[in-house]
């Protein structure tokens, strides 16, 4: 290490200074640390978010590597524990890894849903809907080259109506869910959109409730 860098053992936010102040961040709970969730956590840590709780019950499989923040050396490890090491190594942030799926605990702050199952989404929504403790609910959905990211104010009637119109049982799902088919530029775009929606919300800006895109053609639907 060059001597002049010896003291630079922390993140330098000069480049984002006029874009986002980390002091505005709310506590974040990320439900699911797969292809999208792992990248959301990494991005949030790298913009200065330090209060990050992450739930996931799975370990890192070989097919996870190409679409996520995980490394080949993480194979077989619990996702949340591997992610905690990755984030700490790159940003110095100590996330709170919970090695199981969320099972109904009270949710507060900013909630990011990165799960595979529509039924699980429905269960999460029952704890978020009209919850004044949750300032924003972000739900990421990907399938092949399709991305949808919802940024919902759970106390806004129009947002609630929109989200519930797109909430259905897993048995009625038409598009494949995360993990069946995918490529990293799709999961990365979903993670970018989720992170951007969070920062917009924290800054008090207008946050569109839905972003949809067919990534291969770069055609934004909404």
TrEMBL record:
Domain THIF-type NAD/FAD binding fold: 27-125
One matching Pfam family: ThiF
Coiled-coil boundaries: none
Domain of life: Bacteria
GO MF annotations, alphabetized: ubiquitin-like modifier activating enzyme activity
UniProt xrefs under InterPro entries: ThiF_NAD_FAD-bd, Ubiquitin-activating_enz
UniProt protein name: THIF-type NAD/FAD binding fold domain-containing protein
Organism: Candidatus Uhrbacteria bacterium CG10_big_fil_rev_8_21_14_0_10_48_16
Taxonomic path: Bacteria, Candidatus Uhriibacteriota
